[in-house]
């Protein structure tokens, strides 16, 4: 999968291997695995992503452009949003700014969730990636 760091390509590949409701189950597994925020980072200091239907906050630490750190916060009652954030955390956290900027803006279409999740929710994932890239530019 060109333009994607190996970790993100692996996530996309895993989603391609399952069908229908199993994709939703996998998304929920990701939601449950969203890393907690580090103790020194408060949600109030993070950037909101208003395009998401549920409250989502993100923080991009690009001090080391060879190892960008990404942090997300979303409530437990927003499993779709948490799942998307977790996919980005697993796939992009610790990658270089160059590699993150090279990720196709519509990579999430390869997850195969369009028939299961509303276009509005899918746009939320696009918005998360766009905001990360904006920080890195």
Automatic annotation (TrEMBL):
<protein>
    <submittedName>
        <fullName>Putative SufE-like protein</fullName>
    </submittedName>
</protein>
<dbReference type="Pfam" id="PF02657">
    <property type="entry name" value="SufE"/>
</dbReference>
<feature type="domain" description="Fe-S metabolism associated">
    <location>
        <begin position="13"/>
        <end position="134"/>
    </location>
</feature>
<dbReference type="InterPro" id="IPR003808">
    <property type="entry name" value="Fe-S_metab-assoc_dom"/>
</dbReference>
<comment type="similarity">
    <text>Belongs to the SufE family.</text>
</comment>
